[in-house]
Design goal:
With about 140 residues, the protein is mostly helical. It folds into 3 domains: about 60 residues; about 40 residues; about 30 residues, no CATH class. About 70% of the residues lie in helices and about 0% in strands. It has 7 helices and no strands. Helix 4 packs antiparallel against helix 5. It starts with 8 loop residues before the first helix and ends with a helix.
């Protein structure tokens, strides 16, 4: 991981440059000022979070309570950026496994739909519209 902190998309929506400036100045303040400014910044971020969820079709659709078709692959890819190197490698292995599993399922479905001859050209012809099939057969005859 980089030494530079990475902001999540969510953090970018509830924070602004003023918050970052105040946070950067915290170590140089007196302890009482640190407490007050820290609380002020966090309260403002909390307020921004409430505002974010009041929008009916807001930018943070993945966190909404509505059911959506969310991708596990996208989620793992996003959270991988915030993990230590060892965990990034584990997530990468999981992503590779999921991709291999999906590829196997696609292959299995294609093979089960194949006609009895097992000929991929026949299978391709069966997927084409009559016009496409005619064009395909015309090209195949020219190639022979």
């Amino acid at each position: 991981m980089n030494d530079e902190p990475i902001l999540t998309e969510f953090d970018g929506m509830i924070q602004n440059e003023h918050h970052q400036l105040l946070k950067a100045a915290l170590p140089y303040m007196q302890p009482a000022g640190q407490k007050l400014i820290s609380l002020l910044v966090k309260l403002q971020e909390l307020h921004n979070t409430f505002l974010l969820f009041q929008e009916t079709e807001g930018p943070l659709h993945a966190c909404s309570t509505e059911k959506r078709n969310l991708s596990t692959l996208e989620m793992l890819s996003d959270i991988k950026r915030f993990c230590p190197k060892r965990d990034q490698e584990t997530i990468e292995s999981m992503l590779n496994f999921i991709n291999m599993y999906n590829l196997y399922n696609t292959y299995s479905q294609a093979m089960s739909g194949m006609d009895a001859s097992g000929d991929p050209v026949s299978q391709l012809k069966n997927m084409l519209t009559p016009e496409q099939r005619s064009l395909f057969e015309n090209y195949m005859s020219q190639m022979s």
